[in-house]
Amino acid sequence: MDHFVYRDGQLYAEDVPVAEIAAAVGTPFYVYSSATLVRHYRLFDEALSWGPHLVCYAMKAASNQAILRTLAAEGAGMDVVSGGEYARARAAGVPGERIVFSGVGKTRAEVRAALEGGIRQFNVESEPEMRVISEVASAMGVVAPITIRVNPDVDARTHAKIATGKSENKFGIPIARAREVYAEAAALPGLKVVGIDVHIGSQLTQLEPFEQAYLKVADLTEVLRADGHEITRLDLGGGLGIPYTRSNEAPPLPSDYGALIQRTLGHLGCEVEIEPGRLIIGNAGLLVSEVIYLKHGEGRDFLILDAAMNDLIRPAMYDAHHEIVPVKEAEAAAELHPHDIVGPVCETGDTFAKGRLMPPLDSGDLVAFRSAGAYGAVMASEYNSRPLVPEVLVKGDQFAVIRARPSFDDMINRDTIPEWL
Ligand SMILES: *Cc1c(COP(=O)(O)O)cnc(C)c1O
């Protein structure tokens, strides 16, 4: 459920007409609904209310300070994957004890910064990384809390680019070698083992892969405890999928997911951490764009938008489907015609949809991409020297620009000319 609905023939973001934001901000832009993202966070929080837990928002999905502050005010923790994300989380007021640090290649500088600023745990992804964390922590005279990310070798049944839990993926250590690696961790100075971490992929639309992975984590917890390790936390990653189309069957609900966690792991008495990103922000965001031209090609019609692959790369990168709807609601009797919906970037890959059935639209009309909140603005670039797309946050009848569109001068002045040129 989201808060983007038609009222009197106009698409609204909560209580604000999307067209009103477009008039104020210009297109293209991202708009997020506070109510939707707060609602999604609370669904996860409630789904785990049967035990001690922390929902750590995977901020790589959308990391604007205003979004982080909205979630932090709800009590959310953060899952960060870089020094930049750590700095963003801290700048948004998230205390270190609510930040977990994931990612396959943490540098010494990132580890040091997190230990200086405070960190709940590092999710260690390899033995060399574990040794670096040990060295840095020891040199600083502190102890780094760690979990070790295990790769359970399960098929997440999702797009290949976002599956992370098969043995051929670069993530974590093979679960079969976990005992050995935990033994080394226990022997290294400057580390305190606090738990186990697992994350098998993104946009999972079934619970079975989670179940397979979590049953393996349950077994491993018992084995590691028998080896003498104190396993008090289980970080179960993110990955629950969202509906991108109206028609396909609905992915599992956070409540079902929470019940699955309770059933597979609840008996172990651990504190549970989860790292949802997409489900919290995905359906809480739209990308709004204007039709520049309607072009009749050889046997096909093109809708040419002012948004492009640099603003929303998911269709080009993951073959992703986004619903694209008119901001002015189509007449009930409107005839739908197939269109290729494209951006102006000089690449054939700059295609959002092929043969998409659309109501009549013309130059100047606005359209909205649904489910664009996650992995949208954060993956945007200035390819073709198109300024970074701005972001807007709505709350009730208020809206505010939370990242402004740079001017051409802003863009150009980021470059510097060497003195000798
Ligand atoms: C990307 C990622 C997540 C979030 O995945 P979603 O599909 O957005 O929920 C969580 N944890 C880790 C380690 C990740 O890399």
From TrEMBL:
CDD domains: PLPDE_III_DapDC (cd06828). PANTHER family: DIAMINOPIMELATE DECARBOXYLASE, GROUP IV DECARBOXYLASE. Pfam families: Orn_Arg_deC_N, Orn_DAP_Arg_deC. GO terms for molecular function: diaminopimelate decarboxylase activity; pyridoxal phosphate binding. Its EC number is 4.1.1.20. Keywords: Amino-acid biosynthesis, Decarboxylase, Lyase, Lysine biosynthesis, Pyridoxal phosphate. This is Diaminopimelate decarboxylase. Residues 36-281 form the Orn/DAP/Arg decarboxylase 2 N-terminal domain. GO terms for biological process: lysine biosynthetic process via diaminopimelate. Substrate binds at R278, R314, Y318, E347, Y375. The keyword DNA-binding does not apply. Belongs to the Orn/Lys/Arg decarboxylase class-II family. LysA subfamily. SUPFAM superfamilies: Alanine racemase C-terminal domain-like, PLP-binding barrel. It catalyses: meso-2,6-diaminopimelate + H(+) = L-lysine + CO2. The active site is at C346 (proton donor). Homodimer.
